[in-house]
Amino acid sequence: MTDLHKQLASNIDSIQARITAAALRSGRDPQDISLVAVCKYVTSSLTAALVQAGCLAVGENRPQQLWDKRQALATMPVQWHMIGHLQRNKVKRTIESLALLHSGDSLRLLATVNDAAAAASLRLPVLLQVNISQEANKHGFASEEMAMALPEIAAMEHLDVRGLMTMATLGGGNDQAQRDFAKLRELRDSLQTECPESISLAELSMGMSGDFEVAIEEGATLVRVGSALFEGISRD
Ligand SMILES: *Cc1c(COP(=O)(O)O)cnc(C)c1O
């Protein structure tokens, strides 16, 4: 193994160990939490090295970068996750062989995704992004909109809704992040009672490098970790 591969393997091990510890601390089964490796900062070859090291779920926040890497890594068994805002004119190309769209952030976008999925004869796994922190520059549904939106989303038969996604308040620190994540879980629990049958809210995508442990304590099933995976590694 080269130094790069050693460092990557050691970073992955350490993140997985922290995921396991956070799960056990909060009485959860570590198997119920999946790591999505966010590779938006790094090249295709570094992404390939990460996949080779066992991180098969790769997250990108820009459609173009996802397309380019999907092509570059076409022979590898990658599960592609779209985690950033998706413009409607990029939907068709992005949903090809996408494992999960985390950023279902408006009815308008979801309707476009539903149409494109219908045209491609597939049912696309999606999460509904909620702007828990109510920051003006963030995409996502307002918490109060969700109960009204669910029946409309449930009627979109080519969407396979699996849960909710959020980001903590920017620069808010760990305590604020923990409150934000608790709010997403509480929102999910309250929606659960009236949730249309065709929709699942089982998944909670929350937590990044700085706050994935508190996210796990609050019920995250998917953590999206980028920079911590590449610590000590030159990004080019
Ligand atoms: C970049 C990004 C992440 C990962 O952030 P890190 O702090 O580098 O772990 C997670 N989620 C989204 C939506 C992102 O854009």
User: Which radius of gyration do the C-alpha atoms yield?
Assistant: 17 Å
Helices and strands, in order, run as HEHEHEHEHEHEHEHE
Side-by-side strand order of the widest sheet: 7-6-5-4-3-2-1-8
What's the count of strands? 8
Shape field? globular
Identify low-pLDDT runs: none
Q: Approximately how much beta-strand content do the residues carry?
A: 15-25%
Count of DSSP-assigned helices = 8
The percent range for helix content is 25-40%
> What is the mean pLDDT?
96
> What composes the largest sheet?
8 strands, parallel
Structural class: alpha/beta
User: Ions, cofactors, ligands: which are bound?
Assistant: pyridoxal-5'-phosphate
Straight-line distance between termini: 18 Å
Could you outline the blueprint of secondary structure elements for this entry?
Blueprint: H1 3-25, E1 34-38, H2 44-52, E2 57-60, H3 63-72, E3 79-82, H4 91-94, E4 100-104, H5 107-119, E5 124-129, H6 146-154, E6 159-165, H7 173-192, E7 203-205, H8 212-217, E8 222-225
Bound molecules: pyridoxal-5'-phosphate.
Residues 38, 40, 61, 83-84, 167, 208-210, 224-228 line the site of pyridoxal-5'-phosphate (PLP).
Characterization of the model:
This protein has helices spanning 3-25, 44-52, 63-72, 91-94, 107-119, 146-154, 173-192, 212-217, and strands at residues 34-38, 57-60, 79-82, 100-104, 124-129, 159-165, 203-205, 222-225. The longest helix has 23 residues, at 3-25. The chain has an eight-stranded parallel β-sheet. The protein contains eight helices and eight strands. Strand 6, helix 7 (173-192) and strand 7 form a beta-alpha-beta unit. It is an alpha/beta fold. The structure holds pyridoxal-5'-phosphate (PLP). Pyridoxal-5'-phosphate is lined by residues 38, 40, 61, 83-84, 167, 208-210, 224-228.
